[in-house]
Each structure stands twice: as C-alpha cells, then as structure tokens.
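If you are new to this repository, start here. Below is one unmodified record pulled from the training split, so you can see the exact layout before writing a loader.
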Amino acid sequence: MDTIEKIKEQIAENNILLYMKGSPKLPSCGFSSQASQALMACGEKFAFVDILQNPDIRSELPKYADWPTFPQLWVDGELVGGCDIIMEMYQQGELQTLIKEAAAKQVSE
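And here is the target side for that same chain:
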C-alpha cells in the first residue's frame, strides 16, 4: 500500500483523527500539544498519528491535504485545519459540537 492510500485509509477509518508530532500524552511540539489538549477537553476518544514516527506520512500528507503544517485535524473525512483553527473553534464552542457529533456517528456505525 502506498503512503497516500494509507493516509486515505486512516482518514476513512477514524471519524476524529489528529496528525501530530508526538502523542497526546507526550506531544513533541507546542502546536500539537495545544491541539491535542483542546481535543481531549471535548471528552471524546480520537485517533492520532505521530508523524515523527511516520516520515512517509509527514512528507506526503501536506501535499494530499493541501495544508503545509502540522498538526492537522480530520473529522468525518474532512480536513478541519491546524492548531490556530482548532483553538479558535474550541474557544467559540464549535469544536466541542463538531467532535461530539462525529463521535456519536462513530458509535452508531
């Protein structure tokens, strides 16, 4: 399976997916830390991929997503955005709604 196929499969299999540097418990950059903390504060399970452990994904995902930076949040197969967008949505209460709706879909599938 090539890298783009692997990315597509990860996005398809996980309603809430964060591509980040490190893990939610041990983030390797400030932006990934902020993004994962905002997601954890929403109170739903989410998947993550550590791009530092997956250099192929780290190099290919920005081209596939047409988004140059990490972290990247994908919900229901759509790119939501990076740290700034995640934090803005969280502060406005939009992220919580989006995440709860996506998590509810995952349970019912």
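Two things worth knowing about this chain: The first strand starts at residue 16 and ends at 20. The radius of gyration is 13 Å.
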